[in-house]
Design a protein that fits this description.
Layout (H helix, E strand, L loop, with lengths): L3 E3 L7 E3 L1 E4 L3 H12 L5 E4 L12 E2 L1 H9 L3 H7 L1 E3 L1 E5 L5 E6 L10 E3 L2 H14 L4 E3 L1 E9 L2 E8 L2 E7 L1 E4 L6 H5 L13 E7 L8 E7 L2 E8 L3 E7 L32 E3 L9 E3 L2 H14 L9
Parallel strand pairs: 3-4, 3-14, 4-10, 7-16
Antiparallel strand pairs: 1-2, 5-9, 6-9, 7-8, 11-12, 12-13, 15-18, 15-19, 16-17, 17-18, 19-20
Helix pairs in contact: 1-4
Length: 308
């Protein structure tokens, strides 16, 4: 049995009691949780199709416990790389500290690391088996109070639809129409800094099941393992470097051997260095791989990385 509201605009069918706006991990998991309690949600997404971006990668131990209680843990354990410790390293890779997840009091004493597109795909597949599909290319234009709940206006493919729902769950980000309709503002601050961010297939000298934060005189880098021998890499850029494009390899400072340049087998993805938000993936080429390698050599690693 599923809970819904009578809606004359839907030919006598029940309108979903909950409209979820946004198909990221938060919206998709909320839909899974509602279904467990007999509530059939409707999910709309303004994008035309699922994205293929890495974005957030680490599922924390407490999140894994929540997924376990929801009956969703197994596909994540199969798909992810497990991170059991995080090292803080200084110049010349000297260890400063190591934080281990063992003994933290959770059932799962590790992070699960996988790209966000894969997290969303796992949740979508679960919802599809239960009869829920995401309505892509559908945008919420207005949300108004109504005696019977909330009146929502949708637009898709040049056509509009208006219906009533009991609840609207806003999962479309900080600037969504849901937040604006409530006249709520996101409180917080933007981190300063500019970064080169990469999801790249590369061979790094690192212990298994280990993430690393490496600090040096010119900044820091974060290296986190992903499935399929890939790594998520953050490297900060110098404050004076305000260019939007990646620096050319020959302009980077450091011990870089151009003979090792080349795209790794299987390709790679580099992400625009515009900050933490709004990443756009682009195919890597020799110049961008050189730039990443040079930055890693300059800021982080005394030796060179070997690619594959």
């Amino acid at each position: 049995m599923h809970i819904g509201l009578p809606d004359p605009t839907r030919n006598g069918a029940l309108a979903p009691a909950v409209l979820i706006v946004g198909s990221g991990p938060a919206g998709l998991f909320a839909a899974c949780a509602l279904l467990r309690h007999g509530v059939m949600p409707r999910i709309v997404e303004r994008l035309l199709a699922p994205h293929g971006e890495t974005r957030g990668t680490a599922l924390q131990p407490a999140v894994l416990e929540i997924l376990d209680r929801a009956g969703l843990i197994e596909p994540f354990l199969r798909a992810a790389v497990r991170i059991r410790q995080v090292q803080l390293l200084g110049p010349h890779l000297q260890e400063i500290a190591t934080a281990k997840f063992a003994g933290i009091g959770c059932k799962y004493e590790f992070q699960c690391s996988l790209p966000q597109w894969r997290t969303e795909a796992i949740l979508r597949e679960h919802l599809a088996r239960l009869g829920v599909k995401i309505e892509y290319g559908t945008e919420v234009r207005a949300i108004e109070e109504d005696p019977d709940g909330l009146r929502v206006m949708l637009e898709s493919g040049g056509r509009s639809e208006t219906f009533t729902t009991a609840y609207v769950l806003g999962a479309g980000g900080a600037h969504s129409v849901t937040r604006h309709s409530m006249q709520e503002h996101l409180e917080g601050a933007t981190y300063d800094g500019r970064f080169i961010v990469a999801d790249v297939k590369i061979r790094l000298p690192s212990p298994p099941e280990c993430g690393r934060v490496i600090v040096g005189s010119k900044g820091f880098g974060l290296l986190s393992p992903l499935p399929d021998a890939r790594w998520l890499i953050f490297v900060n850029r110098e404050e004076a470097d305000i260019r939007r494009e990646l620096p050319a390899a020959e302009a980077a400072i450091g011990d870089f051997d151009a003979a090792e340049a080349g795209v790794p087998d299987g390709g790679a993805v580099l992400v625009r260095p515009d900050g933490f938000i709004g990443f756009r993936a682009a195919p890597a080429n020799e110049a961008t791989m050189d730039a990443l390698d040079a930055h890693l050599t300059t800021y982080l690693v005394p030796g060179r990385c070997s690619r594959h």
